[in-house]
Design goal:
38% of the residues lie in helices and 24% in strands. By secondary structure, it is of the alpha/beta class. The two termini are 35 Å apart.
Length: 252
């Protein structure tokens, strides 16, 4: 694989907590323009990996490179500004603000401010236009003026994705984007992920294997903090180690 094809890579990424090794020597290679899934049983180290990639946790050892740049030790804010954005970093939805207001606040953060009350009306109107574009892109055109607190769960997740997109990430990290959703919402959010991945890279942790099969170009399976297998869904799902560690009785 040519290095230009790799947007995110880790070497020997390891995290220990007082003798417990949560992530052990993980080497990831995420190809640009793909949807890459990180899967595994509970306790496999998936969320810890995400926390290391965005430096909400500091690695015990190992290196992380984004677009060929070593970002090991960088702050979460600096990593986000480089274009690697984890959804919850900027998707803490304000429940008593409207959908439009939530997305506009996210857009204001790209300007280095939390609020732009003192900015000219012309500047704010430009933010409104872009906010509405993002709201339409995630299927919330009918909810522009709706308070976030009143949105159904699946629509709230769509709003979170809109606020993430407001930072124009080159690589989006999505942590269980369909967790707790109805079948209809899963289909809607899956279609949205496929849509937003058309011009960016997505790395996601996801437990719903139907979603993984439908969306992912490449899969990394973790077990006990280590990489157990890699490949496309067909090869990973046939791997006997994966069947034993992750899929269990569903494939017995």
């Amino acid at each position: 694989m040519a290095s230009d094809d790799v947007i995110l890579e880790t070497d020997d990424l390891t995290k220990e907590f007082r003798g417990f090794v949560a992530v052990n020597g993980v080497s990831l290679r995420v190809r640009r323009g793909t949807i890459h899934a990180l899967i595994g049983p509970n306790g496999a180290g998936k969320t810890t990996c995400f926390n290391l990639l965005t430096h909400f946790l500091t690695p015990t050892r190992g290196r992380i490179r984004f677009n060929g740049r070593d970002i090991t030790g960088s702050s979460p804010a600096d990593i986000a500004r480089l274009g690697l954005v984890r959804s919850f970093q900027i998707s803490a939805v304000f429940p008593h603000l409207s959908v439009l207001e939530n997305v506009r606040i996210a857009l204001q953060r790209t300007r280095g401010r939390s609020f732009d009350f003192w900015r000219s009306e012309q500047v704010l109107d430009r933010l409104n236009d872009r906010a509405v574009e993002l709201i339409r892109a995630v299927g919330l055109a009918d909810f522009v003026g709706t308070l976030a607190v009143t949105l159904p769960y699946g629509r709230k997740r769509a709003l979170e994705i809109a606020t993430t997109l407001a930072l124009d990430p080159e690589l989006m990290l999505l942590d269980e984007p369909t967790a707790g959703m109805t079948h209809e919402d899963v289909e809607r959010i899956s279609a949205l992920i496929k849509k937003v991945a058309a011009n960016r890279t997505v790395l996601m942790v996801e437990h719903n294997l139907a979603v993984v099969e439908n969306l992912s170009h490449h899969i990394t399976v973790l077990a006990r903090g280590e990489v157990l297998a890699e490949g496309d869904y067909a090869s990973v799902s046939r791997n006997p180690d994966v069947v034993q560690a992750y899929m269990g009785s569903a494939h017995a």
